[in-house]
DNA sequence: TATGAAATAATATAGTT
DNA sequence: AACTATATTATTTCATA
């Protein structure tokens, strides 16, 4: 089922505030509450909206540092890959990990309390995963943009 | 105000489902609805919870591709930086941008409909921003982990 | 100062047209 | 899809620890 303009408008409003009352969303998209409620339910059931999350301030949670770590494996055997990915899934400070193109195999997004903590995560946790050859850290100095929203055109 | 164990437990539950009824959150954290409601309000007012967002499936929105683009500026004058950052803020397909350490200046997270669209964003939009010297694209092949949650110890 | 229980207010959803 | 009625949920009040 393709999304129509109302669906997109509803999603756009929810990206601003996912707990806005349905009646208010309805007003914003020029519809009444009933169809908005039903459309949201449909978007959830169809897997377009997969859940709802609070947006948290990492600093207020004691997470002052943010880094992207590029990682190379020294062999790409199934065992190596599986062991690596399991270690990644088990690390609470790894908040994202992607297999990527280029001369590095993985791009890992890490959050940490401070420089020492980041160093500990990188050196004692990531670099010690069996099969990991090389690690390049890119530390975030400043966040220019991070709306956590997707374009809907 | 430091967070106590109830605050952390409430945030943890909300990270699972930010629209869970307060009474259910209350049950999960072994409290009644009243203090949970008040604590959530307090977390919002203190800026620890800054908002709520739906989690969307990018593919169902026609966004099949995901890339990280490393960018270098050829001069780091205030004018160059400001112009670059404004262009980034204006690009809907740039969903995150950080100033970073290392031999590249910025790490930009881009979403795109397909390879052609990504190419268009990179070559016609990013590379043409005045002051941009070099661009290295890292294309996401597979997402191993992306919980969109923060560790709360 | 923070909680729990009950009452009230707000909001969401289902039935009907 | 909208209007109305019902059900669900959130918040306020108040007594208490």
Automatic annotation (TrEMBL), chains A, B:
It holds the Pfam family AsnC_trans_reg. The keyword Cell cycle does not apply. GO terms for biological process: regulation of DNA-templated transcription; response to amino acid. PROSITE patterns: HTH_ASNC_2 (PS50956). The keyword Transcription applies. One of its GO terms (cellular component) is cytosol. One of its GO terms (molecular function) is sequence-specific DNA binding. PANTHER family: LEUCINE-RESPONSIVE REGULATORY PROTEIN (PTHR30154), TRANSCRIPTIONAL REGULATOR AZLB (PTHR30154:SF34). This is Lrp/AsnC family transcriptional regulator.
């Amino acid at each position: 089922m393709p999304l129509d303009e109302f669906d997109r408008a509803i999603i756009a409003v929810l990206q601003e505030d996912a707990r806005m009352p349905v009646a208010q969303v309805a007003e914003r998209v020029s519809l009444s509450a009933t169809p908005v409620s039903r459309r949201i339910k449909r978007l959830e059931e169809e897997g377009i909206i997969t859940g709802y999350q609070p947006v948290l301030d990492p600093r207020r949670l004691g997470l002052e540092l943010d880094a992207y770590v590029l990682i190379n494996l020294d062999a790409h055997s199934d065992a190596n890959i599986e062991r690596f990915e399991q270690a990644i899934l088990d690390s609470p400070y790894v908040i994202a990990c992607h297999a990527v193109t280029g001369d590095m195999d993985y791009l890992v997004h890490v959050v940490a309390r401070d420089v020492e903590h980041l160093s500990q995560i990188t050196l004692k946790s990531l670099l010690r995963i069996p099969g990991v050859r090389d690690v390049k850290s890119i530390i975030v100095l400043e966040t220019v943009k991070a709306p956590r929203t997707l374009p809907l055109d």
